[in-house]
Amino acid sequence: MNKLIKTDVKTCENLLREFQQKNQPSHAEKLTFKGVGERDVYNITAPFEDEGERVIAGRVESRDSEHSEVYFFVEKNGEWVPREGAPVFKLQDPFFTKIAGELVLGGVEIFPHPTLENALGWRTVFLKGDKIANLTEFAKGPDGMKDLRLIELNDGSIGMLTRPQGDKGGRGKIGFRRLPSLKHVTIEEIENTPLLENQFVEEEWGGANEAHLLANGRIGVLGHIANFDEEGNRHYYPMSFAIDPETGDYSDIELIAVRSNFLEGPSKRPDLIDVVFSGGLVRKSDGTADLYAGISDADAQKITIADPFLQYEN
């Protein structure tokens, strides 16, 4: 198995130039969500199965607010509607995985900032259960950290991706470590997780959105890399890379889509037009994958891309 090679850090500008030389994603499709009033649904997960039914978790939020709820949606007649009887969580940006046969769901919890007036703090919250109806909280991340992700590895241990900000992570950098079990998902373990070096320049940031266990035991990471332009507008790009949990080696980041690959749609604010937030990836047997994404903090779409993880399984 070829070793994963990390070269020098690449900026969003470098990555965009590389991406524009590739075949572009196709078949963008807007997902229609109903049953939540006038609120937007965005930053969705990929579909997953629960009690024999395909379900998408999505962030539901008014256009003028950051106070959101996570709903579970099922598809009926081509539209996604709230699942009858399913719980609703006061969280943002849902994500899921399966560990030890259980569904593990997470999201971002916001709360009044302890020291800054009229500001919000945030933390990642984890829930687990044998099905959506039985999800209960089992762990929290440190205050101020989003984009915490977990994945079960072949030996039953847990791969953990972190994203500290501030003194350790600047605007946001990705860390990785292995843990023996879910019991070890503690604030101390999270805060002590080492960073992956040379992934982001100091002016830019990124995070992991979803982890995939590849056929050879490596971890395929679906994430985002982001920056500000001179006018203060945000630019978020879906990206991927791979980690070898045995050696700690990891690959370069590669972009897998940009906003112009998707359909036009609404934006929460003018500075968020060029935002694509990787929600989840469904790998398919024909060498492609469906990327589910939040668009401009107001919309949800999916698009077909070349499977970004095949190259790491060869």
Descriptive overview:
By secondary structure, the chain is mostly beta strands. It has a single domain, classed as Tachylectin-2, Chain A. It has 3 helices and 20 strands. The chain is globular, with a radius of gyration of 18 Å. The relative contact order is 0.17.
List the main descriptive attributes of the protein structure presented here.
5-stranded antiparallel sheet, 4-stranded antiparallel sheet, single chain, 5% helix, 314 residues, 3 helices, 20 strands, Tachylectin-2, Chain A, mainly beta
Short recap of the structure:
By secondary structure, the protein is mainly beta. It is 5% helix and 43% strand. A hairpin with a 6-residue loop joins strand 9 (120-129) and strand 10 (136-140).
Number of structural units classed as domains: 1
Number of helices in the DSSP assignment: 3
Termini, distance in Å? 7 Å
Q: Percent of residues in beta strands?
A: 35-45%
Order of helices and strands: HEEEEEEEEEEEEEHEEEEEEEH
Secondary structure layout plus pairing:
Layout: H1 12-19, E1 26-30, E2 40-42, E3 48-50, E4 53-61, E5 69-76, E6 79-82, E7 92-99, E8 102-112, E9 120-129, E10 136-140, E11 149-152, E12 158-162, E13 175-179, H2 187-191, E14 205-213, E15 219-228, E16 234-243, E17 254-255, E18 276-283, E19 288-295, E20 299-306, H3 310-313
Antiparallel strand pairs: 1-20, 2-4, 3-4, 4-5, 5-6, 7-8, 8-9, 9-10, 11-12, 12-13, 14-15, 15-16, 16-17, 18-19, 19-20
